[in-house]
Specification:
Elements: H1 3-40, H2 42-49, H3 51-59, H4 62-86, H5 89-115, H6 117-135, H7 140-153, H8 168-173, H9 194-197, H10 204-214, H11 216-246
Helix pairs in contact: 1-2, 1-4, 1-11, 2-3, 3-7, 4-5, 5-11
């Protein structure tokens, strides 16, 4: 290629790098804002986005997750956009390093998720089950979110109905939550017990895990797309970095 063509190619890639990272920066700001909103007013988040959001809200702390992801995207977007605009080798290399670290972490997390699903269930059980015993029936927001989750996902507790044994709710009402009863018998029974309800639903973790497995193809496609974008971003950043030595 002629020097003019090379310069034109460099300029085009630089502009695309700026626009792409500007979009990432704005997306990060939006996620950060949503994360703060969920932290301040979680009930409105559940009402607007429905049962799926309430299910996710029990497995991870959505507000902190969104805040962290939003902050990371803000940093990445700034490094990529400003680094390309100012043609700063330091910022471009920092951008490359941050994206590479995130890419490696995602691959490691995917491997861990596939191999150690049982361990994840054990850890979640150790964290969530004590909260169910202490907060369900006492904390209004926590109780409402779990009621929506158990009703819409057709599940009971994190593992099963025994998560409510010796809980604040059971000691107060001498009964399991009505959401744990079989849908057919719920209109008949005035309290929820195995011998009255006939069937106590399985735990929410298993139900959510089944949903994830059912939609594994979609999730895998999204993950592959994100990985491809990250690889492309690293390749472009390295191209700009190397071309700056030749200018």
């Amino acid at each position: 290629l002629s020097p003019g063509a090379k310069m034109g190619c460099f300029t085009f890639i630089k502009v695309m790098m700026i626009l792409f990272n500007l979009a990432i920066f704005l997306s990060g700001g939006a996620l950060l804002g949503v994360g703060i909103w969920v932290k301040v007013d979680g009930e409105s988040f559940v009402k607007i986005f429905g049962p799926l959001s309430s299910s996710i809200l029990q497995v991870v702390n959505v507000s902190y997750l969104l805040i962290v992801i939003g902050a990371i995207l803000l940093v990445i977007g700034f490094l990529g956009c400003y680094g390309a605009q100012k043609e700063s080798k330091c910022l471009l290399m920092t951008f490359f390093s941050v994206v590479l670290i995130i890419f490696i972490a995602e691959v490691a997390a995917a491997v861990v998720a596939l191999v150690f699903t049982g361990l994840a269930e054990t850890l979640l059980s150790g964290l969530v089950t004590p909260l169910l015993k202490e907060q369900y029936g006492m904390n209004t927001t926590f109780t409402e979110i779990w009621n929506v989750t158990m009703t819409k996902v057709h599940c009971c507790g994190l593992n099963n109905y025994t998560d409510f044994n010796n809980s604040y709710f059971y000691e107060k009402h001498s009964s399991y939550p009505m959401q744990c009863c079989d849908m057919v018998d719920r209109g008949i029974a005035t309290s929820c017990h195995p011998h009255l309800c006939g069937c106590l639903l399985q735990g929410c973790f298993k139900q959510i895990l089944e949903e994830i497995r059912t939609n594994a193809g979609v999730a895998g496609g999204v993950a592959a797309g994100i990985a491809a974008l990250e690889i492309a971003a690293m390749a472009v950043a390295m191209y700009l970095y190397c071309q700056l030595d030749k200018k």
